[in-house]
Specification:
The chain contains 13 helices and 15 strands. The protein is an alpha/beta fold and 347 residues long. The longest helix has 11 residues.
Length: 347
C-alpha cells in the first residue's frame, strides 16, 4: 500500500510500505476512505515531537471501513463504517476507567502517527478497536465525521471545557486555524457573551467571523491592551484559549485575561514559553494544559448527526488520497492560501 512516512525534520515520502496486519487480539485493520492532516503533523515535520522515529507513517484522523478484526474484538465488525479516533484507549487502566483516555497507561493514548504507524495511508491498524473506533450513522458524511477525529473534541475538551466557558463570558481565542475555529463552534454551545478571535491571517479571521466570532483582530495590528479593551469593562477576557503552539501566543493569552481568568492552552508547543510569574502571581489565574481524551466524541457525534454543529465551512480543500504530497504543501502554506482543514478521499 501507499503511505506518508516521516524521515526526520523536513523530510517526508509518499510511497509503498507493507500492508498492516492484526498484531494483537483487540486490533482492527481499517481501509482508509477519508483522511486529513493535522497541525500536529506539521509540528512533527519540524522536529518538535522527537518520539516520532524514521519511517513512521503519520496521521491520527480518519474515516474508513473495517476489513479485518482480531479475535478479541467484540463490538466492531468487518464492513462497519467507522471513525478512527486520534486517541486509542485500552479501557482497563486507571486513567481509562476515569475517561482520561489521552493518558492511557495500557498501551493507548496518542499513539497513531506518533508511537505506531498512523492513518495517512491506504490501510491502518487500529489497536483497542472496541474502545477506539466509533461506528458512524448513515446521515453523517465521511467529510463531516473527519472533524470529530481530533479538532472538535480537542477544542471542546482542552479549550472550552478546561477553560470553563460559561454563559456571558468574554472568550478570546488566539489562533483561528482549524483548532481555533472549532473552539469558536464549541464555545458557542455555552452562550458566551462575546467571542474574540485573534490571528495574523485575514482569511482565517474572515472564517472566524462566519463561524460565530463577534470580534476579530489581526495580531499584527492589535496588542494585549487592545484585546482587553473589547471586554465589557475593559479588564480583559474571562477565558483565553491558546490554539497555535508558539511562545508568543501563549504569553499573549496570559496578558489578555482579567484577574481571576482562565488560560486554556491547546496548541502543541515545540519551544519553551516564558511564564511571567513576576506579573501573574497576583492575578489569581488558572492555566490549564491537556491532551484530548475524546470522551466527548459520542456526544459530539450525536450533535453532528442532529445538525447541531455548524462545521460546513471548516474543510476548504479536497484531494484524492494519492495527492497527499500536494495536500501537505497546501496545508503547510495555509497562511498564504487561506486553507483551513484539508480532506483526502479514496478514489
Amino acid at each position: 500500500m501507499k503511505a506518508l512516512t516521516y524521515h526526520g525534520p523536513g523530510r517526508r515520502t509518499w510511497g509503498e510500505v507493507p500492508d498492516p496486519v492484526v498484531v494483537d487480539p483487540e486490533d482492527a485493520v481499517v481501509r482508509v476512505d477519508a483522511v486529513t492532516i493535522c497541525g500536529t503533523d506539521l509540528h512533527i515535520l519540524k522536529g518538535d515531537v522527537p518520539e516520532v522515529t524514521d519511517g513512521r507513517i503519520l496521521g491520527h484522523e480518519a474515516v474508513g471501513t473495517v476489513v479485518e478484526t482480531g479475535p478479541g474484538v467484540r463490538t466492531i465488525a468487518v464492513g462497519d463504517r467507522v471513525l478512527v479516533s486520534c486517541i486509542s484507549a485500552c479501557g482497563r487502566c486507571g486513567y481509562c476507567r476515569q475517561g482520561a483516555y489521552g493518558q492511557c497507561t495500557g498501551g493507548g493514548g496518542w499513539i497513531l502517527g506518533h508511537l505506531i504507524d498512523g492513518t495517512q495511508a491506504e490501510y491502518v491498524r487500529t489497536p483497542f478497536a472496541d474502545n477506539s473506533l466509533h461506528r458512524l450513522p448513515d446521515s453523517v458524511t465521511d467529510e463531516a465525521a473527519l472533524l470529530l477525529a481530533d479538532i472538535l473534541p480537542t477544542s471542546f475538551e482542552v479549550g472550552v471545557r478546561n477553560g470553563r466557558v460559561s454563559p456571558g463570558d468574554t472568550v478570546v481565542i488566539v489562533g483561528a486555524g482549524p483548532i481555533g475555529l472549532a473552539a469558536i463552534i464549541t464555545a458557542r454551545l455555552y452562550s458566551p457573551g462575546r467571542i474574540i478571535a485573534v490571528d495574523l491571517a485575514d482569511s482565517r479571521l474572515d472564517a472566524a467571523k462566519r463561524l460565530g466570532a463577534d470580534e476579530v483582530l489581526n495580531a499584527a495590528r492589535a496588542d494585549a491592551a487592545a484585546i482587553r479593551a473589547l471586554s465589557p469593562d475593559g479588564l480583559g477576557a474571562d477565558v483565553a484559549i491558546e490554539a497555535v503552539g508558539v511562545p508568543e501566543t501563549f504569553e499573549l493569552c496570559t496578558r489578555v485575561v482579567r484577574p481571576g481568568g482562565r488560560v486554556a492552552n491547546v496548541g502543541v508547543h515545540g519551544k519553551p514559553a516564558t511564564l511571567h510569574l513576576e506579573e501573574l502571581w497576583i492575578k489569581n489565574l488558572t492555566i490549564t494544559t491537556g491532551l484530548v481524551d475524546t470522551n466527548t466524541t459520542p456526544l459530539l457525534l450525536d450533535m453532528l448527526a442532529a445538525g447541531r454543529l455548524g462545521t460546513a465551512d471548516l474543510v476548504t480543500n479536497r484531494f484524492g488520497l494519492d495527492e497527499m504530497p500536494d495536500a501537505y504543501d497546501v496545508f503547510a502554506d495555509a497562511g498564504n492560501n487561506g486553507a483551513l482543514k484539508v480532506a483526502l478521499f479514496r478514489t
